[in-house]
Specification:
By secondary structure, the chain is α+β, with helices and mostly antiparallel strands. Helices cover about 20% and strands about 40% of the residues. The chain contains 3 helices and 4 strands, in the order βαβββαα. The protein has a two-stranded antiparallel ribbon. The chain has a two-stranded antiparallel ribbon with strand order 2-3. Strand 2 and strand 3 form a beta hairpin. It is flat and about 40 Å long. It starts with 6 loop residues before the first strand and ends with a helix. The model has no long low-confidence stretch (mean pLDDT about 80).
């Protein structure tokens, strides 16, 4: 194991549907804030990878396809 990455589904570009508001909780108590949740994810393989906050960027860059490095 060299490093870990966290990817999230790109709901905006994949056009996922079924959004609704959900109460945000902190330590099992509602905070009064609401966040948007997605109910139905599309099956398109679109993901987001935030490389700005990743300390192991070079390991990730080594395995990314060239087309993704151009973005």
């Amino acid at each position: 194991l060299i490093c870990l990455v966290n990817v999230q589904h790109d709901c905006a570009n994949a056009q996922c549907t079924g959004t609704f508001l959900r109460s945000t909780q902190q330590e099992r108590c509602n905070t009064g804030r609401k966040t948007v949740q997605v109910g139905v994810h599309s099956k398109q393989p679109l993901f987001l990878l935030n490389t700005r906050s990743v300390h192991n960027y070079q390991y990730i860059a080594d395995v990314l396809p060239a087309a993704l490095k151009e973005m």
